[in-house]
Task: structure prediction
Amino acid sequence: MSSAATRPAGPDDLWSVDEHLEDILSAVRPLEPIELQLLDAQGCVLVDDVTVPVSLPPFDNSSMDGYAVRVADVAGAAEEFPAVLEVVGDVAAGAADPVRVGPGQAARIMTGAPVPPGAEAVVPVEWTDGGLGEGPVSGMRARSLAPGGAEGHVQVYRPAEAGAHVRTRGSDVKAGDRALEAGTILGPPQLALLAAVGRGTVRVRPRPRVVVLSTGSELVQPGEDLAAGQIYDSNSFALTAAARDAGAIAYRVGAVADDAETLRTTIEDQLIRADLLVTTGGVSVGAYDVVKEALSHVGDEDVAGSGVEFRRLAMQPGKPQGFGCIGPDHTPLLALPGNPVSSYVSFELFVRPAIRTLMGLPDVHRPRARAALRADGALRSPRGRRQFLRGAYADGEVTPVGGAGSHLVAALAQADALIVVPEDVESVEPGAEVEVVLLG
Result:
């Protein structure tokens, strides 16, 4: 645990949102770098800058299927007076020793093939008769069907400037250039670039493994029948999906009943595959809040190692929270409240930054913006609490979605932003400028 977690505080004192987040991030460290094959590195964060060892493209090559020519030989070419050139051979992609193009000559060339010595430009095949003597053509005949296409003569109907339809060596990136910066998340385009410059492996921080557990004897898995007093477990699905969206490899554990020993055993079993543990439910002051019962005041020899501290935050929703480092590897554990909106808001504010910190990203927070409040009436907020209301953001305006209740899952599904009402504000009038957290 960090030193901030041991600050003097009475049982009735509230932590601020910022204090709680600072405590979490001070205890979370980026994962150690590893070397991975390219496809295994997808979604990971690059540790070192990548410098280009070879220019891209590594040689001048054609951007069209056509004929490699000398500029002087096609100057003034037109359909009425075509330039007639001797075809001296084919240049296919991958050709190691292309033919040489001399005065009055042309080489049939394919897209991506190296521009042969002597040639200065490429004329698309559509500007020629394709060697058939029957006017402009729309394409080349397959070599297997017309092996003689690389011989004889071709008529060219349009002139070409030097470098036309030629991708020059280094026109993408040059040898020695920085291709990717450290801190880049590797997606398909970045992996393509690494492969294109010849990198088979790359040094990255691995995607964090996050285990999500929900607690409550009332929880039933979707697809099963509900009995009296039961509800479907939605939190574990929401938080597992949110962890994956943040960049983690996330594992969802089925709901754990309200039994402290069962929960402790489950957590102990999950530590082997977790860089971060997230629980939801059981952190308030009720008689069946088993997360507090299972993880509070434990010894160093127990599953919770350094212990989990439960605290109350000056925020709404999400007042009850827990945080600590547990097990032999001091794995961070964040205990979130059980109401669906409370748990999701808590995830966005505290768990997502922890995941992004484990990934080694320089910016771990959701983007924020200023927006004009669009509402039928004033928004009310309890003094001394930072309130996070669900909202729909568009074109510099934000509209509240649903009420302030922490159980309103349907309203949460319509929101793409959180409206932030500061601790010292009790009322926000329509049209006022507010801060919003953009949820993507």
Observations:
- The two ends are 31 Å apart (CA to CA).
